[in-house]
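Hey, I'm writing a tutorial for new members on how sequence and structure tokens pair up, and I'd like a real worked example in the thread rather than a made-up one. If someone can provide the structure for the chain below, I'll link this post from the tutorial.
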Amino acid sequence: MDEREAMNLALDLAWQGWGRVHPNPLVGAVVLAGGVVVGEGWHAEFGDRHAEPVALDRAGEKARGATLIVTLEPCDHRGKQPPCTDAIVRAGVRRVVAAMADPNPEASGGAARLGSLGLEVQVGAAREAAAAQNAIFLHRFRNQSRPFVALKLATSLDGRIADSAGHSRWISGEPARNYVHWLRAGFDAIGVGGRTVRLDDPRLSVRGSVTPRVAPRRVIFDAGADLDPKLMLISTARETPTTLVTAPEARADPVDRLTAAGVSVVRAASLEEGLRALRAEGVSSLLVEGGGRLAGALLGSGLVDRYYWVQSPLWLGDRGVPATAGLPSDPIARAERWAVVERRALGGDTLLVLDRR
């Protein structure tokens, strides 16, 4: 195995921490000796051991003179765990290859320290892939005014999220729905529009292979705030934190009913203001799952950082509900082109993940 293949393995290992390590980054590590993997590790739990010492311990004496491949620059500070640089030096590693530098000013500096001690250090070997994997973590240091916003939509081939009656269950198949439950586990909050809440009465819970360390908050975007307290998200608001983002002019009576049910209410004059309020409440990442008007408004305001598109092989026609209602139309020359992060099949459906450039 060469260093590039080892880095791909380390990136795969890092995903094992999804939903469990936040707000820490996802990190995977591989110890490579003579083209053979002699140790593997990943950051598995917030506050628990980091990927590098786990991999080095598994390698044992074979780590001496070996190469450590890691998806993030090793930390050089003492937090809940000791500095990874200390473990690397003790293990006798000769060379360290990191996919990208650590943007956290408290933890960065590991590459410089290891280099000053005579180790060969390379940073940036898989920067784009590592940055895409840790997009939520990186956003915290790039834009602290609002959460990282991801939009997830399951659509027909003609871009519809529901049929003419508003029914959306089920456009996508079971493998895609399982993927969405896995995806939810890695976000602080899951958001939907009020119309989706009324039509689908969703739970927005995580019921997949990963149990999140902290259950995501549920967020409802509804200007009128006129939601039946019997709806699932409202009736369970005392069990799972639930926030309503509504307009400043929303009537007091429905707002008071929701507050009495345990819903936290944010009055905001715009989506951007609402997102700022959510960030102030500790929401650093938000997965929005519809509906079409909310999706179109977020996209039109430039507030979406990532788009998870599940495309299903069926047609719903002109009377179906558009995936992005109200999205402004730009000439092709000015249309924003997004970067493809991932393409793959989910059973009979297709997943396309795109990042705003």
